[in-house]
Write a structure and sequence with these properties.
The complex is a heterodimer of chains A (423) and B (128).
Chain A: H1 11-18, E1 26-27, H2 38-48, H3 61-80, E2 88-91, H4 94-108, E3 115-119, H5 124-135, E4 139-143, H6 153-159, E5 164-168, H7 182-192, E6 195-199, E7 218-222, E8 233-237, H8 265-300, E9 306-308, E10 319-324, H9 329-335, E11 339-340, E12 342-343, H10 356-360, H11 365-369, E13 371-375, H12 382-402, H13 404-410
Parallel strand pairs in A: 1-11, 3-4, 3-5, 5-6, 6-7
Antiparallel strand pairs in A: 2-8, 7-8, 9-10, 10-13, 12-13
Chain B: H1 5-12, E1 27-34, E2 39-48, E3 53-62, H2 65-78, H3 83-87, H4 91-98, H5 105-125
Antiparallel strand pairs in B: 1-2, 2-3
Helix pairs in contact in B: 1-2, 2-5, 4-5
Classes of the chains: A alpha/beta (423), B alpha+beta (128).
Amino acid sequence: MTSDAADRPDNRTLIFSMQATPHFPIYMDYGATTPCDPRVVDVMVPWLREHFGNPASRSHAWGWEAEAAVEKAREQVAELIGADPREIVWTSGATESNNLALKGAAHFYHSKGRHLITVKTEHKAVLDTMRELERQGFEVTYLDVLEDGLLDLEVLKAAIRPDTIVVSVMAVNNEIGVIQDIATIGKLCREKGIVFHVDAAQATGKIEIDLKTLPVDLMSLASHKTYGPKGIGALYVRRKPRVRLEAQMHGGGHERGMRSGTLPTHQCVGMGEAFRLARLEMAQDNARAKALHERLLKGLVDVEQVFLNGHPTQRVPQNINMSFNFVEGESLIMGIKGLAVSSGSACTSASLEPSYVLRALGRSDELAHSSLRMTIGRWTTEQEIDYAIETIRANVAKLRDLSPLWEMYQDGVDLSTIQWTAH
Amino acid sequence: MAYSEKVVEHYENPRNVGSFDKGDESVGTGMVGAPACGDVMKLQIKVNPATGVIEDARFKTYGCGSAIASSSLVTEWVKGKTLDEAAALKNSQIAEELALPPVKIHCSILAEDAIKAAVDDYKKKHAH
C-alpha cells in the first residue's frame, strides 16, 4: 500500500464535492468533527449498495464478503496504532469506547479495589462515566493539571492508592490540544498493576502511537475526528498482558462477547480506510498543520492582551486555543461569522459555566469566557488562515470599543479591585 | 444557536456606544454584571436637570450578542423618558422586542438592572 500525491485529493477536489451544499463559513472546527475524506466515502459506498450482507452471517457468501471487509478494516485500524487486530473491538464511537473501557474494567476488577483516577480536563465522555461509577459506589479522584494543561506525574503518584484499579488519561486534549506523557504514565501504572485507559479520540493521525511499546491497556478511538464517518469507533483491549472487561451491551456475543450488535460494514470499512490514510499521510498532514498553526499565531500574537491556552510546544499543531481578554467569546464568534470555530464561553453551552478545561488550567473566568478554539486540518489553506487573522483582528477591535472592561483596562483600572454585582 | 434578526441588527449596528464623563452632574451611571459571569453592562444617561427628562444615553457592554443588543435597545428606549418612566422599564419588554430565547432572558434582566442603577446614581447625585 503506497500513497502518492496523485491519489490525494487536493483542496479543489473537496471544495468541488462540497459545492452540492453550502460550505460557508470556512470550517475551522476540525476538533468537533472532520469532513469525511472523499476517498473514504468512495470505499464505503459499495458496502451500502450491492454488498449489504451481515458480517455475522456464516451460512452464505453475502456474509463472508462482509466479514472479510470488516476484518480488513480491523487490520487497518490496528496498524495505525501498532496493535494486533484481535485487540480491536468495534463500537459506535469514542463515547461508547470510553464507557465500555471504564465501566467494563471497573465492573470486572471491582473485587481488587474500588478506586479510579482521572484528570479534570478529560472529555465529558470520561468525566460523566466516572460520575456514574461514583453513583454505583466507586471512588474517583479527579486530578488537577498544571497551568499549561499537562499532568504533573508527582500529583498522579500521590493519588495512587493500594485499591486503585483504573487510571484514565487522554492522549490529546480536545479543547487545548496538549499531549500528555502517556508513555511515562503507562509505565507507572504497569509497575503498580493498574489498568491504564487512554482516550485517543483526538490523537489518531496526529501523534505516533505504537502500542507494541506503549504501556497502555485500553485505548478509545474515534473515526470522525480522523476523516472517517461518524457513528463508528473502536476500543483497543490489550491481550498481553491480558485486560478483561465486563460487557456493557448484551445480545449475540459479537466482538468476542465484549460488544454485541450487528457490525455496520460500511462504517467499519470507512474507519479502516480513514486510518490507513492517516498512517500514510500523518507526516504530511502534520507538516502542513504546523506551518498553518505558525502562520495563524504570527498573525495574532501582537494583538494586545491575547493569551495562548495550553502548552506552547507539547501540543498538536491542529489546535489553536486563544483568549482575547475583555472580549466575550460568543459575541466574538457572532462577529467572525465567516469562520466556523468554537468557544469556551459559557454562552455557547446550556450551562452558565465557562469552559471547565480552561478553568482547570487556572485561567480566570474572564479569560475562559473570552476564549476561541480554532482547529485546522487536512483541507485548511493559507488563504483561509489569512482571512481568519483579518476577521478576528477586526472583530476583537470592534468589540473592545464596545467593552467597558477594555475601557477600564485602558484607564489603568485594576479589574480585580472592583466590587462586581454577580448575577 | 440562531439569533433573531433584531439581535443581529443591534449587534451589527449598536446604537449610542460610548461614555459620558462620570463626574458630570447631569450624568447617571449604572454598571451591572461581572466579568466572571461573562456579562458586564455600563449604561449612562444624561438628564435635563430642569425637566428631569433623559436627553441622551450611552452604553458599553462586555457580553454575548443578546447582551449587547439588550443594552443598545435600552439606550434608544430611555431617551425622552422621565427618570421614573425609565426606571419602570421591564425586562420582559426587552426580551419580547428582541425575541430572546429563554437561555438569554438574563441579558434582558441585566439591561433592566443597568437602567435602574443609572437612574439611582443620578438621583443620589441630586439627593440634596
